[in-house]
Amino acid sequence: MSVTEKNLNQSLIRVEVVYALPHEQKVFELAVSSDMSVQEIIEQSGVLELYPEIDLKSNKVGVFSRNIKLDANVRDKDRIEIYRPLLADPKEIRRKRAEQKK
Length: 102
Fold this sequence. Notes:
CATH topology: Ubiquitin-like (UB roll)
Mean pLDDT: 87
Strand order of the largest sheet: 2-1-5-3-4
Helix content: 25-40%
Distance between the termini: 71 Å
CATH class: Alpha Beta
Structural class: alpha+beta
Number of strands: 5
CATH superfamily: Phosphatidylinositol 3-kinase Catalytic Subunit, Chain A, domain 1
Radius of gyration: 18 Å
Strand content: 25-35%
CATH architecture: Roll
Low-confidence stretches: none
Largest sheet: 5 strands, mixed
């Protein structure tokens, strides 16, 4: 293996891009350059073509349930999650449940 091939292999990291719908979860496994941004990785994954409703300007993204910015970098074995907008406010749902129990 040449020095160039070693450097290339060392700079690649393995990540997952995940998008979940109520009855479906899609996981894209990729080997990407360690200096790629979250947005670049998402675009390379193909998830945006498969799910055109995803708008990176409005959908939040995270790594292991922690919100991150699109220009952030990730580490080896990170899972990039694309979050859907909430249909209902969780606090409001809990308040309504509590009222019903009274």
